Amino acid sequence: MFASVGLVHRVALASVVISLMVVAAGCTGQLRPTHQAPPNTQTVNLLLRWRAPNQSDIAGYRVYRGSASHEYGPPLNVGVLAKATFDGVVYYVYPKVPLGRWYFALKTYNAAGAESEYSNEKVIDITSAIPPQADAGPNQTGNVGDVFILGAAPAKEASYFWTQTAGPPVKLSNRLGSRTQFSAAEAGTYRFDLVAYDAQGVAAEAMVDVVVKSP
């Protein structure tokens, strides 16, 4: 549980190039004022992953980014990201990151606003502004009970993650592949988001809608 005051549990933040996600010592000092890197006309979306703490009182995450170690700007409050959590790993696309070296960390918070300590810090060097292709496939229409196949052939050296963002919940056959499929038991409009990302975490997104009708 969150403590009523002070800093509490740690979480482990992992970049896409780190496959082992473990709890590590966080930064327990206070943030120091920092100047962000000069504006860069080239930006990319960056996929971050971290292991979700095994606690029931987490109301959301705050993601921190800085241009120097343990010197972060204001956080992004990204919520609890329940739909973007799979097998205990949270997937989040951090938008519009300039090229260069960046330092990331995060905190959790509960409904009362109590925060955790900082996670371990991860350093990511972004050297490419060319994300892999994300192809969620064409929009589709069908009937309850039909099998719908989403996506396309994989791009070279790309990894993938699927999230359902609208419609009655369904089970996707493969949330980590370039292609996936599902069958719906209810009529409705279903929407899915596909993230394609490379070894640096540089990411692209695509969406697809599926309209399911009663036969």
SSE order and pairing:
Elements: E1 12-15, E2 43-51, E3 60-66, E4 76-79, E5 85-86, E6 89-98, E7 100-109, E8 122-126, E9 140-143, E10 147-151, E11 159-166, E12 179-183, E13 188-197, E14 202-213
Parallel strand pairs: 9-14
Antiparallel strand pairs: 1-2, 2-6, 2-14, 3-4, 3-7, 5-6, 7-8, 10-12, 11-13, 13-14
Helix content: under 10%
Q: List the helices and strands in order.
A: EEEEEEEEEEEEEE
Radius of gyration: 19 Å
| Helix-strand makeup class | mainly beta
Number of strands: 14
Number of domains in the coordinates?
2
User: What is the CATH fold-level name of the largest domain?
Assistant: Immunoglobulin-like
Largest sheet: 8 strands, mixed
How much of the sequence is in beta strands? 35-45%
Number of helices: 0
Q: Spans with pLDDT under 50 lasting ≥5 residues?
A: 1-10, 12-38
Terminal CA distance reads 48 Å
Per CATH, the architecture of the largest domain is: Sandwich
The CATH fourth-level homologous superfamily of the largest domain: Immunoglobulins
Overall mean confidence score, pLDDT: 84
- Shape field: globular
